[in-house]
From TrEMBL:
GO terms for molecular function: single-stranded DNA binding. Keywords: Chromosome, DNA-binding, Nucleus, Telomere. It is found in: Chromosome, Telomere; Nucleus. It holds the Pfam family CTC1. GO terms for cellular component: chromosome, telomeric region; nucleus. This is CST complex subunit CTC1. InterPro entries: CTC1, CTC1-like. Belongs to the CTC1 family. The gene is CTC1. It comes from the Eukaryota. Residues 327-348, 710-729 are annotated as: Disordered.
Amino acid sequence: MAGCRPGAPGSEQAWLEVAQAFIQETLCPPGKEPDVQLAQLVIDCVKTTWLSQGTSQGLTLPLSYSFVSVKDLRTHQRLPCCSHLSWSSTVYQAWAQEAGPRGVPLPRERLLLLGTLTDLSGNLEQECRNGSLYIRDNTGALDCELIDLDLSWLGHLFLFPSWSYLPSPMKSPGEGHVELWGTPVPVFPLTISPGPLTPIPVVYPEMASRLLRYRSKHRNVQPNLAGNLIRFSALVKSQKKAYFVLFLGGSSPAGTQVSVIVQVPAQLVWHRALCPGRAYVLMELRVSKLPGHRYRVWMTSTSSQLLPLKPECVRELELELAGVPLEADPQSLPRPSSPQDKKRPGPDCLVRDSILLSYTGMVTDTLNQPAGLYELDRKLELCLAYQQFRGLRRVVRPGVRLELQDVHLLQSVGGGTRRPILAPCLRGAVLLRGFSHQVPEIQFSHQVPQASLYEQLVWEHQLGLPIYLWATKALEDLACKLCPHVLRYHQFLKYSSPGDPSLGLQILAPILEVLIPPGCPGRNTHSEILEEPHHCPLQKYTQLQTPCFFPTLAFLKEEAKRRAWASFDPKTLLPLPEASHLPSWQLNQRLAWSWQCLLPSAFRPAPVLLGILVPSSRKGCLQLRDQSGSLSCLLLAQPLQPLTDPRLIGCLVRADRFQLVIERNVRSSFPSWKELSTTDFIQKKQARVYVQFLLADALILSVPRPVLHSATSSTPPRTEPSPPEGPHIEQSRLFLLSHKEALMKRNFSVPPSASSEVPQPTLSFHVLGRWLGGTQRKEGTGWGPAEPKEDENSDQKVLLLFLGSSVRWFEFLHPGHVYRLVASGPPTLMLFEEGGSSCVSQHPLELAGCASCLTVQDEWTVELASSQDIPEVLGIRPTLPESSLTDLLSGNFADSLVSFSAEIVSHLWMKPGSSGAVRRCVKLTVALETADYKFPPHLDVYIEDPHLPPPLGLLPGARVYFHQLEKRVSRSHNVYCCFRSSTCVQVLHFPPDTTVSAPLPHIYLAELLQGDKAPFRATASCHVVSVFSLHLLWVCAHCTSICPQSSAEVDEPLTLFLWTLCTSFSVLRPMVLSFELERKPSKIIPLEAPRLQRFQCGESPFLTRVNPKIRLSCLSIQEHEHPNALGALVSSC
């Protein structure tokens, strides 16, 4: 810092001239003649202190030092520093090494600081006194801290030879404080007041205690109280007044103790001068009774003084106590408890008692400064939150030595805290015993205002220490998730008021409501300090089981992947009875896709989902984002109710009920089921992680908009073009959405002059709708009347094209709802009619019945129309059109586009060449819901490129609405459906949290002849009567690959052996078969009638009716438990 240095550093005369000018400006009374005597006294004081170091190198004046005023120190010194006038460089180096290897020592500046030590901040009014100390000169006042204060120093001018200055971490103008290391040097000699001419009459604690209880003629006397200081409380500051309580006792620790309340503003500074164990005299006390307190107490008056007790200067006052006691004798104040006084609670005890003790140690780490959490001696934690430690917060940092009087020791508090905790309540005191040599740590995450959320949790919400420690850890995790890009730290941790709630408190509120018992009484500060037995929030506690935690989205995603692959076991996905009969291609096909759903209960402790809801224009889905990354999500407002309100974009979403879904895709080449435990056959694996939940189960919190750009923007920020000249207004138009097409990559024609690059497919979707009225303009907070149309009977249908950044609206647009398209900019005529049919060719517009196409610009927004915006004559009611079951399963191809809702039964990835698939696709088997069928009919839905990967949420157990699927019929007369560009999918229900697999129905094979009344999957007890074909796969013993082979001859020994085996009773035996129909039930063609067929039994021919063959796909084979019970069933097989 640039101080008031002389122009010629080597000239003593120049230094003296600068010093005299500084003294006149900052120390002399303003408006008076220069005080030569004061200037000379100051210079002599500096010279004497400078020469006391013994290494002045012949210099009588510290020419390298410059004077600094309070104002200059506050405004120009931006970095922490220290100054030691009487120290040599060697002494300073030794002092700096005490900062330790982890700390950075305070840098040394050569500055001279002078000022008056006072407890008045600025003016001379007593109301401004709050127990703080200041250094004051003509330029202002500066907060200071002093370890051992002598009250006789107040109001005197001092030179401070050793001090350190720490500016405010909040960089607020005029903040910062000075820490006074050494004893200040008085500029004027301090006058020593002579003792009293006559001994002071005093009463001792025992007599003072009796005076409080007896009605006598001495009750109005203001006695002087003498005794040893046993302890004193913390300084309590409220909106009305500030006070503290000191306790005086006799020479014996077991004697009577008397409490004295000090609340006169001019006497609050006594709190800095008191030292337990010393003897004092309190002059002119008075008796008072506190509201809500049982007994009367002693209290200082405005004329009271605090004097050191000198036995030769006092005499005991003899008083005669007569009359009846006013009240019963209260319990005497016991001495502070020691660890031996209390019995440690056993492990089976739920409620534990803290231990009251005293402790002296060094702060070794700052855990959370605004929360009042520190580390002591590398082995304990210190919590100062249960005292009003605002002034102490700026001093306490690593390297500070503290003496804790009557502090609570809590062990095994839980909530993620493992070390013992020391926490003082209002009864105890925290005394400074040494300042830190280190520069304060820069913790931007802890830059919070004075009245922060942490204080509110303790003083208003009455949190116990275990819950408070968990809450501070949760707020710290939340700050790491959201600050500073989503929120500023002071916004997140600010004091919560009814009109301005704190975001941090809103997030924690649902958990705190469960943890905090109802009707918890507030803290009574007087009772907490005065009453015995002692009662405070720290006296009793219960070990807390961590209720939940707030993981980052990146951690949640990685942990989901880790658990999904850790639990991936092909043998579990394909149980042995089922996998043992599957060929290689079918084995790998069933392993190609699998999924896992993790609920919060699967974690310990349970996670709470938290993030900013933003749409992704790159993926076209919604995402939750925080500082660590993003997580795709699928949301429903309620079951059967989609997400329609775009105002949710940018809101903070908190959910403790959700499904964390992991879809696993595996490319493998297992030759058979025996190699399922060999991971070498897995060539590639990847996972898609997303979360799905209901908004009804979530807490939606609005976030201040100015700080949301980095969190909600799906693309990097770019330089915005300069706005066009002219006024800017908002224009909008209502439209009713009737159909939404699939989100996919499409090709668009680009004018030849637009770009030389080859156009690439662009992620986009189309919306078909109808305008409701004309264009409206913003008027105040609402919308003005719609502009009249030239032809009200003209076709209002429009095709809206969303591409680029505008695809972010995809998840909010649903058929049957009314939306408002909003554009901001200069007034433009025919704004929503521009574009005509230039976006797409005329033929699709003619097919859609639209006259025009409009491309939605990136900067336009979409809003959900309010009820007053929608014309009443329309009576709009969103419905989901569905095709009838007859049309869906019939052979009528007049309308090949069908819509229906169904529950997904299975999800299967199919590779090219497997089961007739020409290219890779996803096969969904869905169960249609109908009351006409005992067993719901099943249908296959195929999803192929460019619709891959499939939309989120297509999971077994989910109920989904499919709109405009293309219906097809296979050569085997099975009905199936395929995705096309006009298809739209909407998830109606998520899979249930707990899936209970119902057993397959057990039927007779003859029941399958009932056609559409037969179940899709079932089990049957049957008998194998013949084997049609047998296919062997030869696996190399070295590389485990399948060897090429040709067909075997009939007369080969192996063929004969297998023929014999297949006709033996080892194969032709009873079994329990689980199967599914290879052909889905449908009404496309009637079932074939039984045909007459001739059989030969010996020499007798038989003619009987034979039903058509039914093709089944085997799911599993099990041995029958009672083979002899199958006699009646064999004939039906």
